[in-house]
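// run 5 | inverse folding | seed 20
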């Protein structure tokens, strides 16, 4: 299924569904476990639900596998400029709106001097807002506007790596490149080191991106070489190592137990499901409406976290906590739909045209 440059890639509705489920798992994790258990983000405790939803953070790992698959698909036949424009128009319009809304909510209803039991990170400054509009706050040592934005830095870095591969014509040697990337990731201690190399190659999450890319390469029978099967197994082992290593950090941070067996089972499930999708063992192509779930995923991820926590703090005394969380989730889904329809669908193309004109002018 290697798409030619002039052909529209086939859409896998199974991936739309997986992306939406991954986003929901992160939302449940934030709303019913993470918000209350660490940092005074949420005043609402859900001890029974939290036994299960504490593992919802692993939805991000599934996102990264999907990203490796989808971004490599979108890179086929593109120049650096075309790839750059496709990523800019995909990511920034929704980010700018979500960042602006989050800033306004934090400014008006976020943490104030009298809010002793409310995280100071639920307050924002104009400088923080401006820097976050670049999607690169970590590079400027500025707090993210929303706690969920941390993964965007890794996504942007991954796009940079793909752009480098396109620019140097290395996509045709991708199996070798992935082998070298995984070899670096496997080195002892790389997950905990600082500096440029770990920032550029993000070893804790590299196995998931590499797995998605390998699954893309292996869709057709002719792409299923023993080397790629071996590398896919390596990504799985390294992904398990990274996720189990992270369990210890989470247990220390939350002062609560996390099961390595549950984490390993979820990571295994992510691999199995993506393998079945890539190899067309799961086919939901007749359910075209699933594309709408996929479209809601990104704005939902951007909007839900800190705005939701502020709603919980300000509304906790007016309604039942289950009603409050359920109503907030519905509100976030509606907001995500509005952002997609009125921002992403209307402004993405115009943004791409403006950026393309700017690049053309700079090249002269």
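// decoded
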């Amino acid at each position: 299924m290697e798409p030619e440059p002039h052909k529209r890639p086939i859409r896998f509705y199974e991936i739309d569904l997986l992306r939406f489920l991954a986003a929901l798992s992160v939302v449940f994790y934030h709303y019913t476990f993470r918000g209350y258990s660490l940092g005074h983000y949420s005043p609402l405790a859900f001890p029974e639900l939290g036994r299960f939803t504490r593992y919802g953070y692993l939805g991000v790992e599934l996102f990264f596998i999907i990203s490796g698959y989808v971004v490599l698909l979108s890179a086929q036949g593109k120049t650096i400029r075309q790839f750059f424009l496709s990523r800019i128009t995909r990511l920034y319009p929704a980010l700018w709106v979500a960042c602006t809304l989050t800033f306004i909510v934090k400014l008006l209803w976020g943490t104030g001097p009298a809010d002793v039991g409310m995280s100071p990170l639920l307050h924002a400054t104009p400088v923080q807002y401006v820097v976050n509009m670049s999607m690169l706050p970590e590079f400027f040592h500025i707090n993210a506007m929303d706690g969920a934005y941390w993964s965007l830095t890794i996504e942007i870095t991954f796009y940079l790596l793909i752009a480098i591969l396109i620019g140097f014509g290395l996509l045709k040697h991708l199996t070798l490149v992935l082998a070298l990337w995984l070899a670096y990731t496997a080195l002892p201690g790389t997950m905990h080191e600082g500096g440029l190399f770990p920032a550029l190659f993000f070893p804790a999450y590299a196995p998931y991106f590499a797995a998605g890319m390998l699954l893309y390469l292996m869709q057709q029978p002719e792409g299923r070489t023993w080397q790629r099967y071996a590398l896919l197994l390596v990504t799985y082992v390294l992904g398990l190592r990274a996720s189990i290593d992270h369990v210890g950090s989470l247990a220390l941070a939350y002062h609560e137990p996390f099961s390595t067996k549950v984490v390993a089972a979820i990571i295994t499930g992510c691999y199995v499901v993506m393998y079945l999708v890539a190899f067309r063992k799961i086919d939901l192509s007749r359910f075209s409406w699933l594309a709408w779930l996929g479209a809601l995923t990104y704005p939902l991820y951007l909007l839900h976290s800190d705005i939701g926590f502020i709603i919980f703090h300000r509304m906790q005394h007016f309604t039942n906590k289950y009603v409050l969380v359920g109503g907030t989730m519905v509100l976030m889904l509606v907001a995500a739909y509005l952002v997609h329809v009125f921002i992403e669908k209307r402004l993405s193309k115009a943004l791409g045209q403006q950026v393309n004109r700017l690049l053309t002018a700079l090249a002269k």
